[in-house]
């Protein structure tokens, strides 16, 4: 199996058209028969015609295979060209970064911007560095995520992390909610979102409105027999139980149960529709379960564990397994070249 270390070499495949074009044309000189009256005609140079036909098909096949083998060899062959390199986080303090680079003895090393997911990027592109190259990563705390198992590299890689300063407490996140409910059930909904705002140390706030705006995240529609305006849109809708007649999309709803709360949901052009018999909760225990369920459904992925300053271990086995050139392609290339030269010489003989 051939693994392309530099797959962009395969873009050179159209070069195969050159030998095909060359072998399709043949120059044929017109036969000239001298006539006695030719001396009375103006002199003219001999003419040649291009006759399109297949010529030397075996030689053409060998030349095409030779070009394909050359492209495959270039795509599979790794040519390390990078030396000592420093990956610098653009947001890090420049004075601190300069001191760290000088302390590591890499002031003359080439510097490149820190790519996203730097460790994975470095592991993927490590073949580009020469065997004796060293790499240094200088970044702010939290910019490099550490995996469960520290990666191993085939080069000397060192990570230096700038300690983060104490950040001020983040402001409370405000969620825009539209409430459309009957007068009998509206107080229950308002009490629910007031309790939501008090939960979680008050880090989440819920602002209730009567009409959606661009930032609206949720629309509560608890008005039986009264459809909301057609222009209302939101990522999520909470509908009272028994709304299947007003919302045909709920006919194919999916049912899930979390924390004892049974929810049905379906997607629609207006947003994702949610309905449950727990809307609105009738007691504090149900309200708490609904809050935990909704936070679980809306939870963002946990951030990666921030990597501390670290010198990664060097292992020869950590080199990319497919980074060495395919030697058999080189031998095939040599054999095809010798065969092509032999056929060309035999044709001229």
UniProtKB/TrEMBL annotation:
It holds the Pfam family BatA. This is Aerotolerance regulator N-terminal domain-containing protein. Keywords: Membrane, Transmembrane, Transmembrane helix. It comes from Duganella phyllosphaerae. InterPro entries: Aerotolerance_reg_N, Double_TM_dom. The keyword Ribosomal protein does not apply. It comes from the Bacteria. The keyword Zinc does not apply. Residues 5-75 form the Aerotolerance regulator N-terminal domain. The lineage of its organism: Bacteria, Pseudomonadati, Pseudomonadota, Betaproteobacteria, Burkholderiales. The chain crosses the membrane at residues 6-22, 58-81.
